[in-house]
Design a protein that fits this description.
It is built from four helices and seven strands, in the order αβαβββαβαββ. The chain is α/β, with parallel strands linked by helices.
Length: about 170
Amino acid sequence: QVEMEHADAVALIRNGVPNEAPSLWADLGCGAGTFTKALADLVAQESTIVAIDREHHNIVSPNPSVAIKFQRSDFTLHKSVPAELDGILIANALHYVSDQQNFLQNLISHLKPGARIIIVEYDTDRANQWVPYPIIFRKLSELLSGAGFRGIEKIGERNSVYRSDKIYAVVATV
């Protein structure tokens, strides 16, 4: 299995991550931690990232001053998502959620005012067994807007290592 390189993951989300002050983020559906580690390299010193996935993963922070706390649970169950977050990262995981509009709407209650959400997805509308509920950029923009997010902006794009489609990153604020 080919994984995205760390530098590529960092470049894809860099423009969406503020690093002025220590912050609390959640990485929903973190998998093996490719984007969790990228986020750890971008947030301010003394920040904390809660990495949530159904499978256990030992994710080591590449930045000794940023804590990564792993939580084994289903990120689609809102009780597993911490409150008072400065940011939420959902990288290659939203396409597993069938009711994306309701899911995104419920996430707002976990975010502080002015907090950010960063979503990384495949720019396709063709479903397959790995991407059951695909979200092209235009659809994601509509979902985020409908859920109450604003300032929706595409912050990165690159070719996917798995498919012929592009992979893109979006940031929005509450």
